[in-house]
Amino acid sequence: MELHASRHIAADRQSVWAALNEAEVLKACIPGCEELTGTPEDGFEAVVKQKVGPVKATFKGAVTLSDVVPGESYTISGEGKGGVAGFAKGAAEVHLSDHPDGGTDLRYDVDAKVGGKLAQLGSRLVDSFATKMADQFFERFQAHLEGPSDDTA
């Protein structure tokens, strides 16, 4: 499954980069994340609970950062095992650039794979779920950096 998207974030590139490397921020933004420990240099260990269609699982796995170009880009890779539910693994190339009107453009390209019971659910369901997870992560990430919106009138 591949996913390509981008977001304009109303924050300077250095703030976006710092948040992308902070365990507490990542934990708060990953849907279903119960635990995230570690450092960008040594990698992270994560525990994430999710329900994909009829399959509920707690995934435990590792997340590593590679191809790091400080302030510009990195590849974040992870693999989680969910017991009888199977496994999920993938990587996202994340690129930051200055937006012409201020703020930062964040572009990401995701490639993910699943196996076990999850793979038996069918690619449409799994792709839809993965897209929803990525959207939720980046919505939360954007909200963390930009603060609450003033749209509540």
What's the helix and strand layout?
Layout: E1 2-9, H1 13-20, H2 23-29, E2 33-39, E3 43-52, E4 55-69, E5 73-81, E6 87-98, E7 104-115, H3 117-120, H4 123-146
Antiparallel strand pairs: 1-7, 2-3, 3-4, 4-5, 5-6, 6-7
Helix pairs in contact: 2-4
What does this structure look like?
The structure is a single chain. The chain has helices at 13-20, 23-29, 117-120, 123-146; strands spanning 2-9, 33-39, 43-52, 55-69, 73-81, 87-98, 104-115. The chain has 153 residues and is α+β, with helices and mostly antiparallel strands. It has a 7-stranded antiparallel beta sheet. Strand 3 and strand 4 form a beta hairpin. It starts with a strand and ends in a 7-residue tail after the last helix.
Name a few traits of the molecule.
153 residues, alpha+beta, seven-stranded antiparallel β-sheet, 7 strands
Question: Brief overview, please?
Answer:
The protein has 4 helices and 7 strands. It has 153 residues and is an alpha+beta fold. Helix 2 crosses helix 4.
Rg computed from alpha carbons, rounded to a whole number of angstroms = 16 Å
Q: Can you give the helix content as a percent range? A: 25-40%
Low-confidence stretches: none
Globular, elongated, flat, extended or rod-shaped: what is the shape?
Answer: globular
Count, helices: 4
Q: How would you characterize the largest beta sheet? A: 7 strands, antiparallel
- Structural class, from secondary structure content? alpha+beta
Average predicted confidence as pLDDT? 87
Order of helices and strands: EHHEEEEEEHH
